[in-house]
Each structure stands twice: as structure tokens, then as C-alpha cells.
Amino acid sequence: MKSLLPLLALPLLIASTAIAEPRSNLPLSAWKFVAIDGKSAVSPKAELRIFEDRIEASVGCNGMGGDLRLESGRMITGPMMSTQMYCNGLMEQERAVADLLSASPSFFAEGGRMFIHSDKHQAELTLAR
Question: What are phi and psi of 111, to 5 degrees?
């Protein structure tokens, strides 16, 4: 009598393949903010860094970051943490980026450009070289 083990394992293999969701094609790298809410980034240091399971951002003064999960074209973040220094001329865009990243925003990346948007905020970025 032949072993039934290979036949019993087949449903588990099929189920595990169907459940696994492929990682987004979003490159794990640094991005430069070009515009935040339609206005040019106020600092040349404004950037976003994406890692396997973490996101970090700065508009040029405070650093912010948190856990990251990419699902169905959305960035699911949190909890987000930030330093709390006052930075003259940067605070409006800094708050906008913090609110944007905390809102599980939609994103689209292609050809070295990325667009992130939520109900209240949006950002345009380019891949840092």
C-alpha cells in the first residue's frame, strides 16, 4: 500500500500558496519629496525611506518613523513616532507628512516617481540616486 502522506500534504501546499500575498514592487530605498500638498518641499533634506517592514521620513528637521505593511496599494503604518523639535518654516509640511503617513495612504510608484495620497494630504517623490 502506498503512503497517503504526499496526498495529504498537497492541500496544505495549495493553501499556503494561495494565502501568501506578494510584496509590492515598491523599491526598498530612499525617496526625495518633490511636493507636499501641491507645494515644493521646503527643504532639500526632505526624504522618505522604505525598508522591508519600516518607514522613516523627515521634512528636514524632525525624524519620524514606524512599522510598515504594504497591502493592496496602501501603506499601513504605525505606531508612528517622532522627535518634537520646533523648526521654523518646516512645521506645516512636517505635520502634513505625519498626517499623510498615519492615514494608511494609497501609493503608486513607477519609473522612479511615487505618489502618496490620503483624503487630506498628498505627496510627490522621486527615487533618490
Answer: 60, 35
